[in-house]
Amino acid sequence: MTLKEINVKERVIVKKLNGQGAVKRRIMDMGITRGVEIYVRKLAPLGDPIEVTVRGYELSIRKEEATMIEVEKVA
Amino acid sequence: MSINIALAGNPNSGKTTLFNALTGSHQFVGNWPGVTVEKKMGKYKENKDIVITDLPGIYSLSPYTLEEVVSREFLLNEKVDVILNIVDGSHLERNLYLTTQLLELGIPVVVAINMVDVIEKRGDKINYKSLSKELGCPVVAISALKNTGIQEMMSEIKKIAYQPFAVRNIYNDEINHALKELSQTLPEKVDEGKQLFYSIKLLERDYQILSAFNMTANEEVIKPLEEKFGDDSESFITDARYNYISFLIKNYYIRANSQQLTMSDKIDKIVTNRLLALPIFALVMFIVYYISVTTVGTTMTDWTNDVLFGEIIPPAIENFLISIGCADWLQGLILEGIIGGVGAVLGFVPQMLVLFLFLAILEDCGYMARVAFIMDRLFRKFGLSGKSFIPMLIGSGCGVPAIMASRTIESDRDRKMTIMTTTFIPCSAKLPIIGLIAGALFNGSAWVAPSAYFVGVLAIIVSGVILKKTKIFAGNPAPFVMEMPAYHMPRVVNVFRSMWERGYSFIKKAGTVILISAIVIWFLNTFGLEDGNFVMVESMENSFLSKIGQTFAWVFTPLGWGHWKAAVASITGLVAKENVVQTLGQLYGFIEVAENGDEIWKTLAMSFTPLSAYSFLVFNLLCAPCFAAIGAIKREMNNTKWTIFAIAYQCLFAYVVALIIYQIGNAIFYGIFNIWTIIAIVLFIAMIYLLIRPTFHLEKVEMDF
Ligand SMILES: Nc1nc2c(ncn2[C@@H]2O[C@H](COP(=O)(O)OP(=O)(O)OP(=O)(O)O)[C@@H](O)[C@H]2O)c(=O)[nH]1
Ligand SMILES: [Mg+2]
Predict the structure, then answer these.
(1) B15-23 and B150-160 helices cross at what angle (nearest 10)?
(2) CA angle at B238 for the pair B236 and B244, rounded to the nearest 5°
(3) Long-range contact list for B267-270, CB < 8 A, 24+ apart?
(4) DSSP B340
């Protein structure tokens, strides 16, 4: 499943990043790499983008980019 | 010994704050990523041989965003003796990612962990000594804001400059093996220390470096590794870096076990709450502009205009000039030209200061990034990004920094669109025009000022939708990946300094550009040819200015104000928007009626109808910005064709909107129909069509960042 499908207040682990080029590199530069834990903090009032906590800081990304991030829920 | 220090670090890590502390200068700081967009140099206060360069914040040295390329080129090609890497200690993990890259450049690095005040407050601990040993470079704890640790940092810099510096290699044997092979293919000129950096770039297939060296990617080396890792080379390098950082954090960062919400979290819960976010946003905007434009601002502005530049200064100066027996023409120049013109502009200083105060608070508290977050969905609908909002908000102060702030928008398309539309928002120099028209023609009605902002916002939306559907702007929306900074109380010093700097540059403009235009306008307006002689004209209609204005005033006849005074005022507005009011101030002789208070706007009101005045206002708000802003557009577009396109679009758009307002308004309110009414209706329908027609689709859409 991808990060887009994760509900607010859930915790996940990144399995894999799809896509390529600039967008993927940017997402990885910001700390979303394989094995990292992501906490979905909130959804913007209009339903997009989302805000997540990753590596101890808050990052906002659009749902479209979130579909590139394959994740697994933390038990 | 002279040392060149480059300040490198993530956006919003406090580089500029430190730069100001070290050099004693007053560059803008703000609490959102991307405040500084141009490098700035300064000298260390205590030792002028030490030169410090403040670079734009970057997250990485990848070739994908403009700032990253600029910073990387600066670090590689300029004479940099020491890289001072500012690391935001409260976001240590992500900040160290750039550090791992900087340590590969073969330039001595000092890592300054900033915001230790925040870390201490949280109760977290960092083991600086071990971290320093592990990274192989000095690590110092500082607070740029509280000015602690600065001396130690500077002495580390002095120690390390000009010393040999060993790069930090964090890769495993497999990767290193490949790097070794690639390094042998590097051109001879690459010196020893930079080999690691360049080999990694070759491995990553960095197109900028490859083309600079005239090389192609060495697939024989790269492909097998990629298969082994099951991922592309950029990704496994990034993975390796972050794995290394995870190790550092685990061992050297001790988190105080507090699960409770911080103040910032609590504020954020309310401010970006799903139900409350939009109302709060609307309320904030309303308060900012209502207070600065309509209430406090106007009260103070009225006083300066009517009392200070009405009852106090002009009579005093007039009496003084008479008492010293000053020549008539010189009296005219000083009273009508300079005080009438420049005074008309200076009267708006209080209003602007109030606006600048609010902007400074918004910038420093951390709300800007939230607005981008809240508005992104909406902005994307008309072809912009949530990040476009920041330039627009700054643009209500001044268009020049606003256009420059658009640099943080990664996508070329979104950035161009933002540059083209951001000056539709009335900047502070346009406030006087709004104030004047509202006061003279609409009895100071409270709706005029808000409507001006509304027109600006609407112009952006309409342009966004229209342009997005054209071929040049077609394509997928660019990604939105943005850090959300923590909220903090705006710092009083920052806020007042920022307010003052902006206010001062406005006043300075009044004393230079506007003063000169005032003198030129006065001259052209006072002299002319009468009976073939060069004289001080009896009737204004004979002046040079009037003759010049009459040659092109007809252009504006369809807009309802085809008389030379208004035409001239609009043109002088290109020099600086304040000139519009300055020119009208002279041409309608405010100075003479000002003495009896409320008479001040009567003469102006006689040559306009409310409708033509509103059309004049709209045209001047939307048309090409002042020369300074046009210059900024040219710099940011970096392309003459695009600049001309932007300016032409703005002028055309302004003309069409003003025409529609005036002609259709005339038909509705006064029942006046003529050929222009039909043209206006046709244009209106055309605009609606452009708004609702289907989007242009490219067959193959490139995703560019
Ligand atoms: N608490 C605390 N805040 C700081 C410190 N240093 C800077 N800040 C705040 O951090 C924010 C960012 O500071 P800037 O100096 O504008 O950051 P920058 O690195 O120049 O940012 P960009 O220009 O966007 O790259 C501002 O709100 C500062 O007031 C510090 O030592 N402690
Ligand atoms: Mg800065």
Answers:
(1) 90
(2) 100
(3) B267/B487, B268/B370, B268/B484, B268/B487
(4) H
For chain A, give the number of residues.
75
Contact B376 A48 (CB under 8 A): yes
B154, B12: one domain: yes
Token pair recorded at residue B422: 């951001």
Q: Report the interhelical angle of B277-289 vs B367-381 (nearest 10°).
A: 110
Q: Are B333 and B522 in contact (CB under 8 A)?
A: yes
**What tokens were used for B46?**
């205590």
Instruction: Looking at the CA of residue B142, tell me the nearest atom of ligand 1.
Output: 31
Q: Where are the alpha helices (DSSP H) in B483-598?
A: 492-511, 513-526, 544-552, 564-572, 578-587, 590-594
The 3-state DSSP class for residue B133 equals helix
Q: Are residues B56 and B138 in the same domain?
A: yes
Angstrom distance (rounded) from CA B554 to CA B559: 10
Look at residue B169 in the predicted model and tell me its pLDDT: 92
Q: Is residue B285 part of a domain?
A: no
- What domain range is B227 assigned to? 173-254
End-to-end Cα distance, chain A: 15
Q: In sequence order, what are the residues at sequence separation of 6 or more whose Cβ sits closer than 8 angstroms to the Cβ of residue B156?
A: B110, B138, B140
A73 touches chain B (CB under 8 A): no
Claim to verify: residue B129 and residue B210 sit in the same structural domain = no
In a domain, B20, yes or no: yes
Phi, psi of B622, rounded to the nearest 5 degrees? -95, -25
Q: Which of B29, B84, B387 to mutate to test the pocket of ligand 1 (most atoms within 8 A of CB)?
A: B29
Ligand 1 contact, B117 CB (< 6 A)? yes
User: For residue B580, which of B567, B589, B570 has the smallest C-alpha distance?
Assistant: B570
Distance CA B423, CA B147 (A): 38
pLDDT value of position B258? 63
Residue closest to B395 by CA, chosen among B432, B447, B431, B344: B431
- Do B40 and B188 lie in one domain? The reply is no
**CATH number, residue B241:** 1.10.287.1770
Q: How many residues in total does chain B contain? A: 705
Low-confidence ranges of chain B (pLDDT < 70): 37, 258-260, 293-294, 297-298, 344, 475-477, 589-601, 696-705
H/E segment holding residue B139 = strand B139-141
C-alpha B413/C-alpha B166 separation (Å) is: 41
Interatomic CA distance for residues B518 and B512, integer angstroms: 10
Does A6 or B362 have the greater pLDDT score? A6
B29 C-beta closer than 6 A to ligand 1: yes
Q: How far is the CA of B145 from the centre of ligand 2 (A)?
A: 13
Q: What is the pLDDT of residue B588?
A: 79
Same domain (yes/no): B127, B16: yes
> Reduced to 3 states, what is the DSSP secondary structure of residue A50?
strand
The CATH fold assigned to A3-73 is SH3 type barrels. (2.30.30)
Q: Check residue B477 and give its pLDDT.
A: 63
Q: Look up residue B380 and give its amino acid.
A: R
* B703 within domain boundaries: no
Pocket of ligand 1 contains residue B91 by CB under 6 Å: no
Q: Where are the alpha helices (DSSP H) in B442-512?
A: 448-468, 492-511
Q: What is the domain count for chain B? A: 2
Q: Find the CATH number of the domain harbouring B53.
A: 3.40.50.300
Q: Break chain A into its structural domains and give their ranges.
A: 3-73
Q: In this structure, are strands B481-483 and A57-61 parallel, antiparallel, or unpaired?
A: antiparallel
Question: How far is it, in rounded angstroms, from Cα B521 to Cα B564?
Answer: 13
Residue B536 bridge partners (DSSP): B527
Q: Give the chain B residue nearest A46 (alpha carbons).
A: B377
Distance CA B605, CA B103 (A): 67
Peptide bond into B391 cis (omega under 30): no
Do B21 and B145 sit in the same domain of this protein? yes
As for the ipTM of the complex, it is 0.96
